[in-house]
Every structure is written in C-alpha cells, then in structure tokens.
Amino acid sequence: MVAGRNAVVEALRAEVPAAHLYVAERIDSDDRVREALKLAADRGLPLLEAPRPELDRITGGAPHQGLAMQVPPYDYLHPDELLERARKRDEVPLIVALDSVTDPRNLGAVVRSAAAFGAHGVVVPARRAAGMTAGAWKASAGAAARLPVARAGNLTRAIEAYREAGCFVAGLAANGSIELSDLELATEPLVLVIGSEGKGLSRLVGQTCDVLLRIPMAAGTESLNAGVAAGIALYEISRRRAG
Fold this sequence. Notes:
- This protein is α/β, with parallel strands linked by helices.
- Helices cover 37% and strands 19% of the residues.
- The strands form two sheets. It has a seven-stranded parallel sheet, sandwiched between helices. A four-stranded mixed sheet has the order 1-4-2-3.
- Strand 5, helix 5 and strand 6 (121-125) form a beta-alpha-beta unit.
- Helix 5 (104-116) packs parallel to helix 9 (226-242).
C-alpha cells in the first residue's frame, strides 16, 4: 500500500502500476486530492470509497490523510530470462547484478541508468535486499516499465550460471585492481556487479568476479552510493561499446 496524499500523487505521476485508489469518505479536498483523482481517472484506475477506520486498517496505521493506493506485487523475471532478452534482440548481453543493496531508491536509480545505457536487466537477491517497491519504481523515473528486474534465490549461483553461459563478470570495488576506463571486457557479454551501500561486495560474490574494477575518485572520497556508481560504470561500458 502507498499511503498519504503526497506519496499517492507522486506514485501516480511516476506511473507506478496500481490496482485501486482508496479515498476516505467525506475527504477534505485539496490540490493533491484533486490531482490524484484526475490521474486515477485518466488511467482508468478504480476508485474505492472507504471509511477512515477501514483505511487505517488496510494501511497498517500509516498516516494516509484519506488517500491510499494498492500496488500489485512486482512480476520478477528469472535471471536466465535476461540473457534470453539479449539473444532475442541479437545484442551482446549486459546485465547488472546488485549484491545486497538495501535502499529501494538506489535500486530504482540503478534501473534508470541500466535502461539509459542499454542493459538488458537488473538482478537482485531474493533476501536481505531491496525489491521493486513503489519507492524503487518512483526512483526509476518510469524506466521500470521498460527494463525488467529478475530475482535470484542465490545471487552467487546466478552469477556463476551467467559465467557458464559465456558472460564475463566485473565487480565494482574500492580496491579493484583495474580502473574502469581500462576495462577491455566492456564489449564482451558482461555482468556488472555492484555491492551494497556500506560493505561493498560480499566475499563470495567478489570471488566469483573475473575482474574487480575501481572508479578513480579524488583523495579523501570514501565511496559512491550504488546508484551513482552504476551510472558511471554503465556510461563507460556504453561508450566503449559504441566506439
């Protein structure tokens, strides 16, 4: 459930998929309520009027301000389907794998960059990681409607399966032995792995990578968040593939 006037309006603007829009009985209308109703009507989204106690119940007590929207579960792909997507397009595979990234906004930002720079999808772990929530969808700025996200029960095994299918695996790490600009594998079938916001790549995932890349940064800068790092790396890969 997306609850609250601002949150509902922003989700509708971002075209987050939705099942129903709940509106409290005798709601005090303002610009946000009017915009939400108009956006919902334009999309043909069903409107359900509900007593405030019912809204309190379905939102789990969250401050809804008389507006709530039901968002259906995201339809994740299997990791293998991302390779199939590249094959159907007769393109060199480029897949982004996120290792325990927990901030949905970072996931959404990665999806946005992956779509912008020609990736065929993003893979996330099924546990202890951000999923495609309404917040992630919003951060993707609509790219989530164009680029699929796959969910892996075991990320290390999924990456190993990509290697067996002929992909190289490059992980971003602060102590990487190769600078991003020197990545000769950029034009090959590639899986780009990005670690969590705090700990970076896990040990097992790092050991699965063929190369570890670093992004050159000014002295004193510790790290970049996953969304920013993905955008920089994907731009460089896209540039080398275009060249």
